[in-house]
Amino acid sequence: MSEFDHPLIAAIYDLDDDRGDLDVYLELARDTGARSLLDVGCGTGVLAVRLAAGGVAVVAVDPAGAMLDRARARPGADAVTWVHGALDDAPPMQVDLATMTANTAQVFTTDEAWARVLAGIRTRLAPGGRLAFETRVPARRGWEAWTREHSHVRLEVPGYGEVASWEDLLSADLPLVTFRSTNALADGEVVTAVSTLRFRERDEIEASLADAGFVVERVFDAPTAPGQEWVFVARVF
Ligand SMILES: C[S@@+](CC[C@H](N)C(=O)[O-])C[C@H]1O[C@@H](n2cnc3c(N)ncnc32)[C@H](O)[C@@H]1O
After folding, report:
1. Measured from the CB, is residue 64 less than 6 Å from ligand 1?
2. How far, in Å, CA of 173 to CA of 89, rounded?
3. Is the CB of 102 within 6 Å of ligand 1?
4. Is 2 inside any structural domain?
5. Can you give the three-state secondary structure of 148-159, one letter per residue?
6. Among 1, 38, 149, 170, which lies 20 to 30 A Cα-Cα from 78?
7. Probe ligand 1: pick from 4, 49, 51, 61, max atoms within 8 Å of CB?
8. Are residues 123 and 67 in the same domain?
9. Is the domain of 86 the same as that of 156?
10. Is residue 146 part of a domain?
11. d(CA 197, CA 178)
């Protein structure tokens, strides 16, 4: 089960309504004239719904039912084909563009899982189709701020009231980083989730893309996190 599969965690995720990080994917879809999109790890569906509103045929996949419940409740969600599950559960397709936004690429912690998702995306891309995703730069050691001291916030969460929320770094055994998110409600209920993310180096990602049959087209700093995250755009021929 995905650590995102809890209504409170999905609601907290959706509090971040400044999704400027998605602009790079919206621009790529527009600039390449993509008519169809596969969004892997779509979460609460912000990108999927925005692109579908512009006439793009969107298939959006996520194993966390609580995230998909929020996605399906968005205005315009009916225009998207939602798949509850992993990419293997998605039907065959031939899309112009595939995306993994908000560092979703880092949830694939083993070489096998990463190779499998790249292969699954490749078979679902039309000739000339592109894959775009971002991932955190290991050298920036972003996990060092994933501590209670640095991350503690009090949030007002619709339907839940005030929630104290923070992260505790459990281990940084590179390339794997494990942390626990804690969300404490005023009534004493506490919801925790443990996540492990893989921090891959740029050359490792480029090699894995080549192994999966992609040609790397561009790698650049994420405009909303320069120096902290790379955006990869790769193409199949
Ligand atoms: C950080 S969130 C990003 C969500 C969304 N892409 C966004 O931009 O807001 C990571 C998402 O990856 C999903 N996820 C976890 N494991 C996955 C897997 N094996 N396949 C696809 N998605 C997965 C989680 O459920 C979660 O919704």
Report:
1. yes
2. 31
3. yes
4. no
5. HHHHCEEEEECC
6. 1
7. 4
8. yes
9. no
10. yes
11. 6
Residues 115 and 231 in one domain: yes
69 domain-assigned: yes
Q: Report DSSP state, residue 225.
A: S
Containing structural domain, residue 171: 139-197
Regarding whether 221 and 124 lie in a shared domain, the answer is yes
Question: Does the predicted model carry a pTM greater than 0.90?
Answer: yes
Q: In a structure prediction context, what are the per-residue pLDDT tens digits for the chain, which is 237 residues long?
A: 678 999 999 999 999 878 999 999 999 999 999 999 999 999 999 999 999 999 999 999 999 999 999 999 999 999 999 999 999 999 999 999 999 999 999 999 999 999 999 999 999 999 999 999 999 999 999 999 999 999 999 999 999 999 999 999 999 999 999 999 999 999 999 999 999 999 999 999 999 999 999 999 999 999 999 999 999 999 998
Atom 14 of ligand 1, residue of closest alpha carbon: 41
Nearest CA to ligand 1 atom 12: 41
Specify whether 133 is located in the same domain as 144: no
The response to whether residue 114 sits with its C-beta less than 6 Å from ligand 1 reads no
**Quick one: 174 and 231 in the same domain?**
no
C-alpha dist (Å) from residue 135 to 161, 191, 213, 229: 32, 26, 20, 5
Alpha helices in the chain (DSSP H): 7-13, 23-31, 46-53, 65-72, 111-123, 148-151, 202-211
Does the CB atom of residue 86 touch ligand 1 within 6 A? yes
Atom of ligand 1 nearest to the CA of 104: 10
Shared domain for 95 and 20, answered yes or no, is: yes
Count up the domains in the chain and report the number.
2
